[in-house]
From TrEMBL:
PANTHER family named among the record's database cross-references: HISTIDINE KINASE (PTHR43065:SF48), SENSOR HISTIDINE KINASE (PTHR43065)
The keyword Transferase belongs to this UniProt entry's keyword annotation: yes
Domain Histidine kinase: residue ranges: 304-484
Protein's recorded name: histidine kinase
Length: 488
């Protein structure tokens, strides 16, 4: 019988697979005839119709399964959602009580995931007790090695993963606090300055009233204030050189008319985009040279308050934008699985990592905005983008170009994260996705970031992730399917 020959099974029939049939499964192919006969005598076969649940996460792990035919999917419970972790139709894969050979530590062993048949599927089944027995009796040395490896990696990975999560959370929190502090401090400074300017306006208004200004002139002054503010709002943006030249012109004009604090006022009017024509219009409408000084100061205060309120609005909008990005990044109040635009997650990740990226790295976003939405777990993909962008920034040592490109390739969306760092040597390219392997100096990397990213993309989304690297041009390309797997 070949690997591809179908096996006719009767559900739960002990001994339904002969030793010869068992040998066609890669797990048993090197066993002796006597060992295969023992397994045949102690095993049974099971048929599960499409859609049936073979094992349920959290139930006692009392059976060991080997897939004979069909397609199965494993999933884990995350909150209220079932998150698919892997999907396969490979004949001979095994699942269930795979750690039954481990020594009893008093902790009940339970299935770590649920398994569902996506189409009609057949299994060879052994009890956990029988599977543990043959492992311990037939392969004692291997069991000792596996126990040490499993328990050692479990404790090491738990400790390192916890530390990595705390480190990543600390870095993201510090970056977010830094980004929030800038607009918050700007809003605070603008508010303090605004209070001073409003007080100055009240004082200047009192002086104007005490000067017994004719009613028509006071009305004209109020109208002039509104006209100037409207003109400033519509003024074209000026370069730094143009603003400096405008200040000189306005300062000279005010000096000629003995306006007090002319050069301080000139900076305010120039920043507002106003010119000599505006001042001349103001002079004509005020009509009285003795009122011009007070009028210009009053208009200057009004103009500055508008600028300060714009600064406060910009700062508070920036805070709101950062909070929205943080919420988008963490996927708060959102379903674990949904149809998403990949650019939303990429943008929110860039915002969260702004402080870490720094000013020495130029960020180039080459997005294809016409890409359709894809089915995904956005919080998990954000973790992938974080790992890839963080690695790229570290590779460039704070100076270079970070390029994020999106495009369509057949029935997949491609997200490429590139950097201009030194690259990854050819002999290490095949190892970058191995757990605990890192090219970073000791203490700077855990070797889990790319391993986690690989499992999220490949196992969790049915995609692929590849590395292309040469000095000055390194790219990680993430391929994500446009549609759900047909059989899911």
């Amino acid at each position: 019988m070949s690997d591809t020959d179908p096996v006719t099974l009767v559900p739960c029939e002990p001994g339904a697979l002969t030793p010869a049939e068992l040998r066609t499964l890669f797990l048993f192919e090197k066993l002796t005839d006597e060992q295969l006969q023992w397994i045949s005598d102690h095993g049974c076969t099971m048929h599960m119709p499409a859609g049936g649940v073979v094992i349920q996460e959290g139930d006692p792990a009392d059976q060991f399964f080997v897939l004979l035919s069909g397609t199965i999917a494993l999933s884990r419970k995350v909150g209220q959602d079932d998150v698919q972790t892997s999907r396969t139709e490979q004949r001979g894969v095994y699942m269930g009580a795979t750690n039954a050979y481990l020594r009893d530590d008093g902790v009940p062993r339970r299935y770590m995931a649920s398994m569902r048949a996506l189409d009609d599927s057949d299994f060879f089944v052994m009890s956990a007790e029988d599977f543990g027995h043959i492992m311990r009796e037939w392969f004692p040395m291997a069991v000792h090695l596996l126990e040490g490896l499993t328990l050692g990696m479990r404790s090491s990975q738990a400790a390192i993963s916890e530390r990595q999560r705390l480190t990543a959370l600390g870095a993201l929190s510090a970056g977010l606090m830094h980004e929030l502090n800038n607009p918050a401090a700007a809003a605070s400074r603008a508010t303090a300055s605004l209070r001073q300017r409003v007080a100055g306006m009240r004082h200047k208004l009192g002086m104007l009233a005490a000067g017994k200004v004719p009613t028509d002139r006071l009305v004209a002054l109020v109208e002039l204030q509104e006209d100037v503010i409207e003109r400033a709002a519509k003024a074209p943006a000026l370069t730094a050189m143009q603003v400096a030249d405008r200040e000189d012109e306005l300062g000279d004009w005010m000096d000629e008319r003995n306006v007090t604090g002319a050069w301080d006022l000139a900076a305010v009017f120039a920043q507002g985009g106003l010119d000599i024509e505006c001042l001349s219009d103001m002079e004509a409408r005020v009509g009285s040279p003795e009122l011009l000084d007070q009028a210009i100061h009053w208009i200057g205060y009004a103009l500055e308050t508008e600028q300060l309120m714009t600064d406060i609005e910009d700062a508070t909008s920036r805070v709101s934008s950062l909070v929205a990005s943080a919420k988008q990044y963490s996927q708060m109040d959102r379903a674990a699985h949904q149809w998403i635009d990949v650019h939303t997650g990429l943008d929110s990740t860039l915002v969260m990592l702004t402080h870490k990226i720094g000013t020495g790295v130029k960020v180039v976003k080459d997005y294809d905005r016409t890409l359709p939405q894809i089915p995904a777990h956005p919080a998990e993909l954000n973790q992938v983008w974080t790992n890839l962008i963080d690695n790229a920034v570290q590779a460039m040592n704070g100076a270079g170009t970070l390029t994020i490109k999106t495009y369509r390739e057949d029935d997949h969306v491609i997200v490429a994260v590139g950097d201009t760092g030194p690259g990854v040597p050819d002999e290490l390219k095949k190892r970058v996705f191995e757990p605990f392997f890192t090219t970073k100096p000791v203490g700077e990397g855990t070797g889990l970031g790319l391993d986690i990213s690989y499992r999220i993309v490949v196992n969790g989304h049915g995609g692929d992730i590849k590395l292309e690297s040469k000095p000055g041009d390194t790219k990680f390309k993430v391929r994500l399917p446009l549609n759900e797997p047909a059989s899911a």
